[in-house]
Amino acid sequence: METKKKLDRCEEVFGAMGKNVLSSIADLSPRTVNHVHDYFANNLYSDQTLSPKIRELCVISIIAAQGGLDKPLEVHIRTALSQGVAKEEIVAVLETVASYAGMPKSISGLLVAKRVFEELEAATING
Question: Do both 25 and 77 map to the same domain?
Answer without folding.
Answer: no
